[in-house]
Amino acid sequence: MNLLKYRWYFLGFFVVTMILSVLFLFVNPYNDWGAKPGDSLNLGVDFKSGTKIYFPVANPVSTTEVSAVLETIDLPEFKFSAPQPSQYIDSNGNVKHRVLIYTRFLKDSEQEVVVGALEAKFGQDKTQGLDITRVSPLVGKEIVNNAILAMIIASVAMLIYISFRFEIISGIAAIIAMLHGGAIVLGMFGLLGLEINATIIAAVLTVLGYSVNDTIVIFDRIRENLKYRQKGTTVVELANDSVLQTFRRSLNTGFTALFAIMVLFATVPNMREFCFALIVGITTSGTFSSIFVASSIWAVFKEWQEKRKLVDKPATATR
Q1: Cα 243 to Cα 188: distance, rounded to the nearest angstrom
Q2: H or E element in which residue 257 lies
Q3: Closest by alpha carbon to 77, among 35, 38, 40?
Q4: Alpha-carbon span 121 to 73, nearest angstrom
Q5: pLDDT at residue 137 in the model
Q6: Which of 102, 270, 285, 265 is nearest to 205 (CA)?
Q7: Is the terminal CB of the chain with fewer CB neighbours within 10 Å at N or C?
Q8: CA 306 → CA 2, 240, 299, 311, distances in Å?
Q9: How far apart are alpha carbons 137 and 143 in whole angstroms?
Q10: Average pLDDT of 44-64?
Q11: What is the rounded distance in angstroms from the CA atom of residue 117 to the CA atom of residue 98?
């Protein structure tokens, strides 16, 4: 099977989807396709100013129940993320329940309204403390900058590692394939108007690591095959053989991960956006990009490099 004979189609698809993903970061339904001023993405309170409330409850509650209460609160431009119910065991071994709620930045009076509405519906477990944290606009901006810095540092560190272990073109190809998956996840969230918060950034970083791991396996196989390359075997053929040798492993790993994530997506409502990000990222970056884009970039560059050497090689005089 000659998969890399379609390498230019793979690279073309990569370019098109990359452009669309970046476009959707700025033009999407959330900002009325660019007509609405302000944030171009639906950023959560983690990246803007906001209030985080850990509200203690005596009995388990669902995301739907808490959302229904919050939707009745009459405050100007009141916005909240999907509530996240949880439970833990205290120092006495008792099971305690609480719900995490992110809202826009609340003043003291608005904070009392929200807490009062929750207490009126669910009551408040007095054995637990009410934990409220407010994030100022300045802190929100710092979180955004730190998230971007984390992605840059991770990319540079992986580029250095892969370049040291293999070669510079392998590192560049791996980073390009990795960023493709991350861009598609963020672009998809922009297109669908889904909220981007710290949890989603964690999912994107997980996807980046998954992609690089899969790409390293392929480049490791390419390196081994280069040692035993037979005369007349082109770099495209060698890359294709390497992809085929790791293809089953990559698909099995991807399908196994996707199966587990889809189960969580179907059964845990407050993790659906996180799981959706992983599903999109693993499907694109962890499967398509790491297998076809990275190997195609390496093959195209090496093919061009070898052709250039032949052209630059001085012709030997015939006698």
Answers
A1: 28
A2: helix 235-267
A3: 38
A4: 12
A5: 64
A6: 285
A7: C
A8: 20, 17, 10, 9
A9: 10
A10: 84
A11: 15
Res 10: pLDDT: 93
Q: For residues 93-110, give the mean pLDDT.
A: 87
> Domains along the chain?
3-33+139-306 (1.20.1640.10), 50-135 (3.30.70.260)
Q: Which of 100, 76, 106 is nearest to 88 (CA)?
A: 100
Mean pLDDT of 30-51: 77
What pLDDT is attached to residue 318?
A: 46
Does residue 1 register a pLDDT over 60? Answer: yes
Q: Which of 174-178, 293-297, 306-310 has the lowest mean pLDDT?
A: 306-310
Angle between helix 235-267 and 294-312 (nearest 10): 160
Its pTM surpasses 0.85: no
CB atoms within 10 A of CB 256: 10
**Percentage of the chain exceeding pLDDT 90:** 31
Q: What are phi and psi of 50, to 5 degrees?
A: -175, 175
Farthest CA pair distance, the chain: 101
Q: Hey, what long-range contacts does 242-250 have (CB within 8 A, 24 or more apart)?
A: 242/218, 242/295, 243/3, 243/4, 243/218, 243/291, 243/292, 243/295, 244/1, 244/3, 245/221, 246/217, 246/218, 246/221, 246/291, 247/3, 247/291, 249/217, 250/214, 250/217, 250/218, 250/287, 250/290, 250/291
| Higher local confidence (pLDDT), 105 or 147 | 105
Q: How far apart are CA 270 and CA 264, in angstroms?
A: 10
First to last CA, the chain: 44
Residue 299 has a pLDDT of 93
Place of tokens 């998809």: 188
Distance CA 220, CA 222 (A): 5
63 C-beta neighbours (distance < 10 Å), count: 16
- The DSSP letter of residue 270 is G
Q: What's the whole-number mean pLDDT along residues 138-146?
A: 71
d(CA 77, CA 73): 11
